[in-house]
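Why does residue order matter? Because the sequence determines the fold. Keep that principle in mind as you read this record.
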Amino acid sequence: MYKLVASDLDETLLNDDHHVPQRVVDAVRKARELGVHFVPSTGRPADSVNVTLEELGLAGSADDYTLSFNGGCLTRNSSPEPLTSCSLPFERARQIYEAGVRYGVCMHANTLGPVYLYNYVPEERAYIQGRMNIVETMEPTPDFLAGQTIVKIIYMSLDMSYLQRIEREMVEAGLTDGLDVYYSGNRYLEFNAPGVNKGAGLLSLAARLGIAPEETIAVGDNSNDVSMIRAAGLGCAVANATDEAKAAADYVCQADNNAGAVAEVIEKFVLGA
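Structure:
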């Protein structure tokens, strides 16, 4: 029997309006009645998940958890204080940040507090405004963040081919050596501390709860979900997932994020519907 279901949020759990479909709400409730843990697993900060937790009926629960920052941060849903956290070494963060300035991208510098947005373009403002604590900046270096924990840095562009070119050039220059680097949301290139990924976060939480890896399910849609899909006992990709995520999955949903793909997984493999 599966005892834990971890799900990515954007383009997986949430529909295109950034809400949880009712079919998914109902499926999660029924799974929890059977004692199954449901764990949001996102690249975003934990406080950006609060509305989703409310919609799922998980807000305020001391027995439930959220994995944020691609598995690098674990919180109980009853408290904002992280049980685990991660950080980029400041000099590595400086290299990535200053390269982003040179490339002219919109850039997130994620801390354990606000998300600092460099070159906050209208397309990104429309996509994330109101969903996280944003501080705008045009500082050309991250020196203003000295003394803060920089969890990760994200480059944003709607031109994925440009992000892919940037990644190739940064790899060739050695700027990504040792970092966990992947794509998310069909608009982001993420730079994370070594060993920080959703798969590691899932396995760590399962161990904390006394749950074996084979008793876990993971659902995702993009490259930052692949480690989690592979680590889980049952890895699932939604119908709108990337080819990379689908190739890593044991099961590919018929439904996409708008049609309640996560509910499809729970109904089929947890509820036996």
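The chain has two domains: 4-85+196-269, 90-192.
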